[in-house]
# Entry
Amino acid sequence: MANVSGHHHVLDVWGDLACFSRPEMKVERYSYPCPTPSAARGIFDAVYCKKPQFYWQVTRIEILSKPSLIALRRNETKEKINPAAVQKWISGKTPVEPIWADGDQSLTGSDQKGRTQRQTIALRQPHFRLFARIIPRPGHQPQQRAFDEQFRRRALQGKCFYQPSLGCREFVAFFRYVEVLENEPAPFAFSQNLGLMLYDTFDLRRENDQYAPPFITLFHANVVDGVLEVPPLESDEVLKPDPQERRAG
# Structure
């Protein structure tokens, strides 16, 4: 295997910390040893994405360093800002009302602090190789080659629309575009059955997911010799919501 072919793009991704949370841990975050397909897709989206022309299909995730965990305690706010309120602040209709993480009663109107401590079991010094390809939506297939060339050019120059992250926004991801795999390091010899892993939270086939309802998909993830093969969204291996339940919702 030398040149990357078949419209596949490969990114070498690394950082200081990463956290791809297991959903069964609920409040306290505990990371998978590798990115979920949705987290990997987010990294490709950060470099280049044109909605609704196409979406990214992650096909393969390789672990290049031994998974090493570190325990962190972080202060997190208990509230989130209402987007409608932000629009009013921007237009000047209402004054800005920030979230006071450590404000007293005179600021918050309550004797409870606006923050809480959370435990995070994160990955230390993570390093991955991500494979994905562009899937044009109906009517945009003739632009496939242009999409591929634009992504390749941007990735080679280190450009991105926003800084990609490794699970949590504060865990910055650095990336490098890989054109030839021949001289790249082999995956780390790590095997583990990860059980059910989150595949994505949106139906990627929809042309506009901005107002789309949640579409939680799962798949049985099994890392073999440092490699996680990701099935396509249309595959029966990807567990999808029941259509009747979606219509009822």
